[in-house]
Amino acid sequence: MAHPSQLGFQDAASPVMEELLHFHDHALMIVFLISTLVLYIIVAMVSTKLTNKYILDSQEIEIIWTILPAIILILIALPSLRILYLMDEINDPHLTIKAVGHQWYWSYEYTDYEDLGFDSYMIPTQDLVPGQFRLLEADHRMVIPVESPIRILISADDVLHSWAVPSLGVKMDAVPGRLNQTAFIASRPGVFYGQCSEICGANHSFMPIVVEAVPLEHFENWSSLMLEDA
Fold this sequence. Notes:
Number of domains: 2
Protein name: Cytochrome c oxidase subunit 2
Subcellular location: Mitochondrion inner membrane
Cofactor: Cu cation
Oligomer: single chain
Number of helices: 4
GO biological process, one term: ATP synthesis coupled electron transport
């Protein structure tokens, strides 16, 4: 859960998000070192009157400042490509959930069950109880089992939406007439919040996403109760 004055990412709750955090730190360190070197060169050039005639016209210097940036780009590109392929991997999911965006709420269908589905609306501010988060709580949470590969099929009923949960490292556009898919694994129990990340209209800010990861036994009990109510 994000908090005021937070500068970094939310704590990772999935293996892919952990990889993204590591890559972010890796790339940020490279940018920091480049910025420090450039700042040092600027300060040195401005603050001294000395000139080295061999640096002004040097084949070796030109070779270095051509090859070095290429090496840096490779050091950034290879981990990035690795994570891109990891994010596209969908290996034998234990559960498939279809998320459909509407103006302005989400509906979820557990396609492995015959008749398990519900709409998820934001809880109005006046109905919140102490401890709940304004504009982020939903009346029905998407409940999933912990440490199980989950496949999400994402679409929209009217306009463009985007299903995004930062802690899980998931963000996928919901396009009318198109079925996109992504996958994730919740590595620990908890409640993870997200929002529609596409400007979809006047009430764009009022369609939160709440994912609750629970142990498998609790998930089975929850699904049984939902099927009985249906």
